[in-house]
Write a structure and sequence with these properties.
Helix content is 76%, strand content 0%. It is mostly helical and 311 residues long. The chain has one domain. Keywords: Cell membrane, Membrane, Transmembrane, Transmembrane helix.
């Protein structure tokens, strides 16, 4: 399977590798990867706070629409084309719905029921489910290591469901189901891109996937959630801008630039920084609990993803 498993998009690798010297190029790649993953981790508590200002679907997808427009400007500024080759539209729309639309919407709903730290941990199980789906779809052998990775991810989910009491457990179920479904659908899209990749440069593909995935959900949110933009605080608008500029545009620009310089397996393992940053940032910024269930689930998930990426 394709081991490039970030928290959002997976498209084909760039056919134009970096022209920098190998050692310098890899060092730059590590730096870009670190920037992207830290930004994505911090965005979890940012998104949780924004729920006080905007309803979940609007909050998650409207910044992505602006991110897509900013990335489109970057692509054009680099002299690249945004043209979609004939015959690629069907795949592009399907992957956008699975890896962006469903992911953004379901994770937004998950944040309504779960702390940002726990949502980040559940989202990080994505590479594990992709490892499992590669068996029936791509015919890749389900090795012992992959079975162990899946078991560890499930163990992390069980720890998060335990919480502090049975009552808390049942309150978490809708959020856990939304997060797991989001991760499964994203993983399905990731595996399908390996089966039938999109014949586009990565950054241009990211523009279309962000736009096609976020715009319909954002439109639905505006029409049916009735967000009150006039009632947003200055701080709310600041966080909205962070999601659009940093989490979306800068995060994805750094991610795809890193992919051009690093092996995919290293980039995949590097994304383990995301849930760690998300959990720590949520504890610091939101005062969310950081007890045995959260730490245990984080350790199980990080270890499971590392095993899945190397299996």
């Amino acid at each position: 399977m394709d081991r490039r498993t970030p928290h959002e998009l997976i498209v084909v690798s760039s056919p134009h590798p970096s022209t920098q010297p190998p050692h310098e190029s890899r060092a730059v790649g590590y730096g870009l990867l670190l920037i992207a993953t830290i930004i994505w981790g911090i965005n979890w508590p940012v998104a949780k706070y924004l729920l006080h200002e905007l309803p979940p679907l609007t909050m998650r997808t409207l910044p992505g629409v602006f991110s897509a427009m900013m990335l489109a400007g970057l692509v054009l500024a680099k002299g690249q084309s945004l043209r979609v080759p004939r015959g690629e539209w069907g795949k592009l729309i399907l992957y956008a719905m699975l890896m962006v639309g469903a992911w953004m919407a379901l994770m937004g709903l998950s944040l309504v029921h779960l702390p940002a730290s726990e949502t980040a941990i559940l989202g990080a199980t994505l590479p594990v489910w992709a490892a499992g789906l590669a068996w029936p779809i791509l015919g890749e052998r389900l090795t012992l290591l992959r079975i162990i990775a899946i078991a560890m991810a499930i163990g992390g989910v069980v720890l998060l469901m335990g919480g502090d009491s049975i009552g808390v457990s049942w309150e978490k179920v809708p959020g856990i189901l939304c997060a797991l479904l989001a991760a499964l659908l994203f993983a399905l899209g990731a595996v399908l891109t390996k089966l039938r990749p999109i014949a586009m440069r990565p950054l241009a593909g990211a523009v279309w996937q962000l736009g096609l995935g976020c715009f319909p959900v954002a439109l639905f949110g505006i029409l049916f959630e009735h967000p009150h933009f006039g009632g947003m605080s200055s701080f709310g608008w600041l966080l909205f801008g962070f999601s659009a500029i940093f989490q979306g545009a800068i995060g994805y620009a750094c991610w795809f630039a890193a992919l051009e310089r690093l092996p995919a397996s290293i980039a995949a393992v590097g994304t383990l920084i995301v849930p760690v940053t998300g959990v720590v940032a949520s504890a610091i910024l939101l005062g969310e609990p950081l007890g045995v269930p959260q730490i245990g689930a984080l350790l199980l998930t990080v270890a499971g993803v590392a095993i899945a990426a190397r299996s």
